[in-house]
């Protein structure tokens, strides 16, 4: 008698739908925002230290309002807003949506309470789950994707803004306690990689998500140039300070010179010289400066002056993007949980292109040829800020994982430096 072996086929796994993927991503993104606020007391989450920063509570509510205003109110039938008055409190800069609470006074919003904001997030999260129970329209899916990336931007802002708050306090509290000493590190030798000139494609190619300011893809003429192998270090910046860099007017643009004189700058933000050396406030508390790590919290004015002192210049955003073409976009970002820039790894070629610090470029933040903002309120996201700002590339230690692209164009005013901003040198070949 023979036995017949029956082989049962494994059940075929159902491929996740677009709604499944978006639902999973939005859940993880929204969860990370809440997780970032866990080390903070409710009192920490209410205050802002300066006009450019916003309270943690405001970030948590604003990113929630974004989904409510642009997704749920339009695409979830019978959606009822959590509180109509929240739109005035948590609209950021969308003029076409309506009036809003002035940015410099967000720290006065003691109401709604932190508990109410947490309830607001839970309410909107539950409603987003309901949105994904049915097929998601293309326009709704695009706005959800924008909302995910928008919240990731605010996760970085949440961290840099809480650093500005803690640095302004006499107790100098740490966002995360780290009692380990800063181990002395020797900077990697600075070398330059040469790149041929030519006409190159710049900007996003339309495959996958990108902000509207990353396109259209277009041709750009580049002259032969050289780009530094790593970012400028704290050790190199201290040499600039001690060589009188902040006292030599010929190194500075006129607006930069006026700024450092008016503000009394003598080093990067949060820098302090003591009898025991240089220290800097960080998310890990007030610590000795790591000489081998990238300098951070410097303005465009300072970066430009340093480059001139070093006999170099800042790269254009087009040079930076072209040079990064064969560099992995995976860098030391928020998922590494370092919360501060780290020294360059021992490696040949270009390092630190992604993560650690945002890198100032010499490029003014202007529209690419053929740029057209999206219709409606979301068209205010990037386009209306294309004046008097400069482009930064590469991301930082506080940028959420998966958020970066080589075509990504961050932008800030030249005097701003509370973000994790640094620089990389360039030169003509």
Describe this structure in words.
By secondary structure, the chain is α+β, with helices and mostly antiparallel strands. It has two domains: 18-167, Four Helix Bundle (Hemerythrin (Met), subunit A) (Up-down Bundle), CATH 1.20.120; 192-428, paralog of FGE (formylglycine-generating enzyme), CATH 3.90.1580. The chain has nine helices and twelve strands. It has a four-stranded mixed β-sheet. A three-stranded antiparallel β-sheet has the order 1-4-12, with helices on one face. Strand 5 (271-274) and strand 6 (277-282) form a beta hairpin. The chain is globular, with a radius of gyration of 23 Å. It starts with 17 loop residues before the first helix and ends with a strand. The model has no long low-confidence stretch (mean pLDDT 94).
Topology:
Elements: H1 18-37, H2 56-75, H3 86-90, H4 114-131, H5 138-167, E1 192-195, E2 198-202, E3 218-222, E4 225-228, H6 234-242, H7 254-263, E5 271-274, E6 277-282, E7 285-288, H8 300-309, H9 317-323, E8 358-364, E9 390-393, E10 410-412, E11 421-422, E12 426-428
Parallel strand pairs: 8-11
Antiparallel strand pairs: 1-4, 2-3, 4-12, 5-6, 6-7, 8-9, 9-10
Helix pairs in contact: 1-5, 2-4, 2-5, 7-8
């Amino acid at each position: 008698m023979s036995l017949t072996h029956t082989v049962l086929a494994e059940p075929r796994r159902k491929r996740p739908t677009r709604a499944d993927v978006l639902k999973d991503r939005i859940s993880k993104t929204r969860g990370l925002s809440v997780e970032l606020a866990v080390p903070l007391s409710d009192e920490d989450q209410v205050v802002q230290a300066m006009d450019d920063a916003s309270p943690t509570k405001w970030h948590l509510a604003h990113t929630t309002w974004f989904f409510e205003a642009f997704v749920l109110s339009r695409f979830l039938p019978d959606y009822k807003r959590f509180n109509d008055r929240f739109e005035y409190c948590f609209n950021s800069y969308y003029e076409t949506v309506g009036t809003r609470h002035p940015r410099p006074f967000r720290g006065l919003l003691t109401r709604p309470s932190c508990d109410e904001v947490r309830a607001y997030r839970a309410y909107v999260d539950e409603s987003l789950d309901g949105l994904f129970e049915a097929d998601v329209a293309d326009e709704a899916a695009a706005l959800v994707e924008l909302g995910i990336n928008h919240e990731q931007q605010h996760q970085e802002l949440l961290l840099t803004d809480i650093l500005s708050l803690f640095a302004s306090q006499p107790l100098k509290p740490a966002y995360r306690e780290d009692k380990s000493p800063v181990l002395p590190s020797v900077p990697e030798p600075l070398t330059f990689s040469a790149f041929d000139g030519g006409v190159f494609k710049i900007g996003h190619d339309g495959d996958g998500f990108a902000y509207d300011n990353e396109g259209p893809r277009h041709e750009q003429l580049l002259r032969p140039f050289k780009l530094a192998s790593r970012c400028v270090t704290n050790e190199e910046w201290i040499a600039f300070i001690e060589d009188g860099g902040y006292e030599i007017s010929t190194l500075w643009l006129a607006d930069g010179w006026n700024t450092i004189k008016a503000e009394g700058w003598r080093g990067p933000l949060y820098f302090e010289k003591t009898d025991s050396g240089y220290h800097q406030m960080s998310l890990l508390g007030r610590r000795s400066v790591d000489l081998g790590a990238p300098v951070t919290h410097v303005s465009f004015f300072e970066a430009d002056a340093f480059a001139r002192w070093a006999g170099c210049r800042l790269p254009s955003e087009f040079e930076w993007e072209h040079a990064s073409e064969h560099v992995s976009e995976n860098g030391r970002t928020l998922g590494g949980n370092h919360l501060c820039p780290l020294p360059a790894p021992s490696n040949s070629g270009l390092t630190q292109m992604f993560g650690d610090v945002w890198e100032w470029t010499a490029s003014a933040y202007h529209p690419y040829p053929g740029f057209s903002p999206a219709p409606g309120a979301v068209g205010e996201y990037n386009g209306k800020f294309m004046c008097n700002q400069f482009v930064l590339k590469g991301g930082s230690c506080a940028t959420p994982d998966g958020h970066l692209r080589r075509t990504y164009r961050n932008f800030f005013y030249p005097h701003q430096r509370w973000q994790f901003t640094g620089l990389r040198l360039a030169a003509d070949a």
